[in-house]
Design a protein that fits this description.
Blueprint lengths: L8 H4 L4 H10 L5 E3 L18 E3 L33 E3 L18 E3 L12 E6 L5 E4 H5 L4 E8 L5 H6 L6 H5 L2 E10 H8 L7 E6 L6 E5 H4 L4 E6 L2 E2 L9 E3 L12 E7 L13 E3 L5 E3 L7 E6 L10 E10 L5 E7 L7 E2 L1 E2 L9 E9 L4 E9 L8 H8 L12 E4 L5 E4 L3
Parallel strand pairs: 5-14
Antiparallel strand pairs: 1-2, 3-4, 5-6, 7-8, 8-11, 9-10, 9-14, 11-12, 11-13, 15-16, 17-18, 18-22, 19-20, 19-23, 21-22, 23-24, 24-25
Length: about 425
C-alpha cells in the first residue's frame, strides 16, 4: 500500500528501504532497534509510530512470527486517516500512500453528521413504505438471500477539494485536497429487486432514504436512479462493511455525491416529491454567480489528481520519475488522462492501469524525464461523454467564488530546482 519506491516515505512517516538495509548491516549478530520518524504534518496527527522495532540482522536465521487471526501492517508502514476525533466532520484518505486502484476499507474517508452508531446486524431492519403496494420490512438475512452483485465504484464526498479552492497553500497534500475519495469493490442487492417485491405505485417519483445515526441523516433520491444502478451494499472489498462505512447496510448510488449514499440505512419511503430535508437544503445546495443555486446536483463530473510526486515529496535527483495519480467520473468511464509537465503548455496521454470501469477510479501513470529545471505538473481527465476536466479559471468562471461543492478543476504541482514539490492553486 505504501509507495515505498519513493524516497518521500519520510514524508509519510515510513522508514525507507535504504534505512532498513543500512541498519541491518550495521549490527550483525544482534537485534537492531529501529526508531520510526514522526509522521508528517497535515491537518492533524496520524497514527503514532512505535518507538522501537526489533530487527534481526539476518531474518533468514531467525524463526518468524506465528500465524494470527488478523493481519496487521508492517510496523515500518505508518498510515492513517486525518484528522480524527470528530463526530460531526470528516477524516481524509491518505491517497498519496497508495498504489493501484483499490482503497483499503480501513483507510476509506469518513464523513459523519452525528458519529458512528452501533447497530446489531441481528436486529437491523430496513422498512420500505410509502407509495408501495405492500409495505415490507427486510432483515439482513433477507437481503443476503437475494441475488447479489459485486462491482467496483468510487465514492466521493461532494465537498472534496474545498480546502484547495478556498484556502490554497503550498503545503497541501493529495490527502488534504482530495482525500474525501475512495474506490472499492462493493457487494449488495440492486434496489430495484426490493422495489419489485414491494410494488411501486403510480406517482412514486422519489424516495426518502434515511440513515440510522443520531442525526437521522436523509436524502431524497429520484426513482430513476433507484431503478437504474443503485445498490443496498453490505460488503466492501470482500468483507462486511466497517461501522464507519455504514455497517450493516448502506445505500450505494454509483457516481453520485457521497452524502446520498446513506449509511446505516433504515428506511426507504417512496414519495411523489423530494422531501426537502435539512440535509438537502441547509447543505448540498450550491450558490451560483447569477444569484441562483444548484440543488440535487447529484452526478460527479470527471476529475483527476496526481498523487506522486506531490507535497510532501521531494524528487531526489534529475532522471526518470513516474508521475502517478487517480482519475474518475460519475457519468461513465474514464477514456483518457493527459499529463502536462510544463504548466499546461503541452500534454501527453498517460497510461491507464487496466480497463476503465463505469463510475470507478483508475490509476494513471506517466514516465517523465526530469532535467532538474523547475516544472509544473498537471493532469486532466476525459470521460466517455466527451467531457474534459476544466482548468481552474474555467471552473471559477462557471461556478463563481461562492461555489461550495463538486470541485473538479485541474490541480497543479510545482517541482522546484531542488526537487521540493508544493501545491500550486494557480497556474
Amino acid at each position: 500500500m505504501s509507495d515505498s519506491g519513493h524516497d518521500a516515505a519520510a514524508g509519510t512517516g515510513a522508514l525507507t528501504r535504504r534505512a532498513m538495509v543500512g541498519g541491518a548491516a550495521a549490527a550483525a549478530g544482534a537485534l537492531i532497534f529501529s526508531t520510526l520518524p514522526e509522521a508528517a504534518g497535515g491537518q492533524g496527527s496520524v497514527a503514532s509510530a512505535p518507538p522501537l522495532i526489533p530487527v534481526p540482522p539476518d531474518p533468514t536465521k531467525v524463526l518468524g512470527a506465528p500465524t494470527s487471526a488478523v493481519s496487521v501492517r508492517s510496523p515500518f508502514v505508518v498510515t492513517g486517516r486525518n484528522p480524527t476525533g470528530a463526530v460531526s466532520g470528516s477524516s481524509l484518505t491518505p491517497l498519496h500512500q497508495f498504489s493501484g486502484n483499490i482503497t483499503p476499507a480501513d483507510l476509506q474517508f469518513e464523513r459523519h453528521h452525528a458519529g458512528v452508531p452501533t447497530i446489531d446486524p441481528a436486529t437491523w431492519q430496513l422498512m420500505v413504505h410509502g407509495l408501495v403496494d405492500r409495505e415490507m420490512i427486510f432483515t439482513l438475512d433477507d437481503l443476503m438471500s437475494l441475488p447479489s452483485e459485486t462491482r467496483v465504484h468510487f465514492l466521493e464526498c461532494s465537498g472534496n477539494g474545498r480546502l484547495a479552492f478556498k484556502g490554497s497553500r503550498p503545503d497541501l497534500s493529495p490527502q488534504n485536497i482530495d482525500g474525501l475519495l475512495c474506490n472499492a469493490e462493493w457487494t449488495g442487492v440492486p434496489v430495484k429487486t426490493l422495489l419489485a417485491e414491494v410494488g411501486v405505485k403510480s406517482g412514486a417519483e422519489w424516495a426518502l432514504a434515511e440513515g440510522g445515526d443520531a442525526a437521522l441523516m436523509s436524502r431524497s433520491v429520484p426513482m430513476a436512479k433507484l431503478m437504474d444502478d443503485a445498490m443496498l451494499v453490505y460488503a466492501q472489498n470482500g468483507e462486511p462493511l466497517r461501522p464507519a462505512g455504514g455497517f450493516p447496510v448502506r445505500l450505494f448510488l454509483p457516481g453520485w455525491e457521497g452524502n446520498t449514499n446513506v449509511k446505516w440505512l433504515r428506511r426507504l419511503e417512496l414519495v411523489s416529491e423530494p422531501n426537502m430535508s435539512k440535509d438537502e437544503t441547509s447543505k448540498y445546495t450550491d450558490p451560483l454567480p447569477n444569484n441562483t443555486a444548484r440543488i440535487f446536483s447529484f452526478d460527479l463530473d470527471a476529475k483527476s489528481t496526481i498523487t506522486y510526486p506531490t507535497f510532501p515529496n521531494t524528487v531526489k535527483k534529475p532522471g526518470w520519475v513516474q508521475v502517478s495519480g487517480l482519475a474518475w467520473s460519475g457519468r461513465g468511464r474514464i477514456t483518457a488522462v493527459d499529463v502536462s509537465v510544463d504548466g499546461g503548455a503541452s500534454w501527453v496521454q498517460a497510461r491507464l492501469a487496466g480497463e476503465p470501469q463505469p463510475k470507478a477510479a483508475i490509476r494513471f501513470t506517466h514516465m517523465w524525464k526530469w532535467d532538474g529545471a523547475p516544472a509544473t505538473l498537471m493532469s486532466r481527465a476525459v470521460d466517455d461523454t466527451g467531457y474534459v476536466q476544466p482548468t481552474l479559471a474555467v471552473f471559477r468562471e462557471g461556478r463563481g467564488p461562492g461555489t461550495d461543492y463538486h470541485y473538479n478543476h485541474i490541480r497543479a504541482w510545482k517541482v522546484a530546482a531542488d526537487g521540493v514539490v508544493t501545491y500550486s492553486g494557480e497556474v
